[in-house]
Amino acid sequence: MPKIIQKPRYFIETYGCQMNYSDTERLQTVLAGLGFEKAESDTDATLIMMNTCSVKQKAEDRVFGRMQKIKEYKKTRPDLLLGLTGCMVRNSSTKIAEKGSRDKLLGMMKPLDFVVRIEDIGHMKNLLTQLQPEMQFPEIAEAELGDYFTINPHLQSQKQVFVPIGTGCDKFCTYCIVPFTRGRERSRTIEEIYEESKRFVENGAVEITLIGQTVNSFGLARSDAGKFEGAHPFTQLLKKLDTLHTLGLRRLRFTSPYAPDVTDEMIDAMATLKTLMPYIHLPIQSGDNRTLKRMNRKYTVEYYRDLIKKIRTKIPDIAISTDIIVGFCGETDEEFENTCTFYEEMQWDQCYFGQYSPREGTTAGRFFKDDVPREIKLQRWHRLNDITKKVAKEKAKSFIGKKVEVLVEQQRGKICIGRSEHSKSVNFLSGRRIIGEIVPVQITGAKEWVLEGMMA
């Protein structure tokens, strides 16, 4: 049995999307409540936590690869504990739990001591006690840590805050594991989200980003039946949070919405509310209807086209980005060409795309054949990358000569890096420290992914 840890220290490695990073902020609060201090590096930690993403195979491969280094750590640091949470975990359990109750990851990754579903992190004390019964923990109010959503996050930035408005997903896209790992969709109440957001704004937040697996499906799940009055709960939430501009909220964003749940009321809110930014990330995944059907994306190319037209009519200067999967099961040359043609038509400002990789446990992983050869996927990836760069460059050039408002996120010496209202990355110089401030910048140059300018 390992000896008692006198001064436990944690180090968290986070993989994946904004939801994962938001989860990490709550995980930090839990660990601090359990008496852990934050370590400067993994070599100084007594507990290493890996907050994982399973949307892409590459993310999981990084985790498996990381295990080899931690395995070496454990040879000389017998007290070191390794825990894993996030999208890869199905069942909170430890390596010494009864065999039938253990998550399979504990058998696949030998250095692992325990895994915990992100919704269960408030109960991590139980898992740690199983592993090290001698560990002493501070008395923690169960109400503070029991429910994931009631955990007050340890914010990475007081100025920019991510607020999860729900967890889980009910869409069951055939390539996605999230409904099986995070469970069915469940939304918070509008009042709970408002009170948390209000607290952040009162503490200095100027930008809030609402996050969810399909964020605008808020309040529409079966589990939310009877929880909300009236129609369009997401629009109600946007309007409620917009009132925080009187307390200092300057920017409200959300990611990522699901096309069929974008309503006229939501578009009107985006066009009229004071705090909502002229930017939306609206995943398409493919520009071909046959591929979309195999993905179980419940819309067509025609529907998406009409939706974009409606959004741009209401908000002419809006910036729109998207997601695309290259080489999904059964994707023919014709289907891929349709995606390229649709990209040229839509003229998205940005695209986040990757090559399809099968996920164990998904519908596609079980029933579809991953039949697009790797070299073909790579060729298609490069083709789409060329289109993306060309369109992005033209979109970026349209900002030259304009003045934008930039929220400064990083500063290295005099070089400032931040985001404009349209979520464009902007670089400029300043002789004073202005991280967290929103400043006017005149755009003087443009690359594919970055605008350059000078303070106006």
Describe, in short, the structure shown.
This protein is an alpha/beta fold and 456 residues long. The protein has helices at 18-33, 57-76, 105-108, 124-131, 142-145, 178-181, 190-202, 233-242, 264-272, 289-295, 301-314, 333-346, 363-367, 374-397, and strands at 9-14, 37-38, 47-52, 81-86, 93-94, 114-116, 160-164, 166-167, 186-187, 207-211, 251-255, 279-281, 319-326, 350-355, 403-412, 415-419, 425-429, 438-446, 450-455.
Structure, described:
- This protein has 456 residues and is α/β, with parallel strands linked by helices.
- Helix content is 33%, strand content 21%.
- The chain has helices at 18-33, 57-76, 105-108, 124-131, 142-145, 178-181, 190-202, 233-242, 264-272, 289-295, 301-314, 333-346, 363-367, 374-397, and strands at residues 9-14, 37-38, 47-52, 81-86, 93-94, 114-116, 160-164, 166-167, 186-187, 207-211, 251-255, 279-281, 319-326, 350-355, 403-412, 415-419, 425-429, 438-446, 450-455.
- It has a 6-stranded mixed beta sheet, with helices on both faces.
- α12 runs parallel beside α14 (374-397).
- The longest helix is centred in the last third of the chain and has 24 residues, at 374-397.
- The protein is globular, with a radius of gyration of 23 Å.
- The model is unreliable at 1-5 (pLDDT under 50).
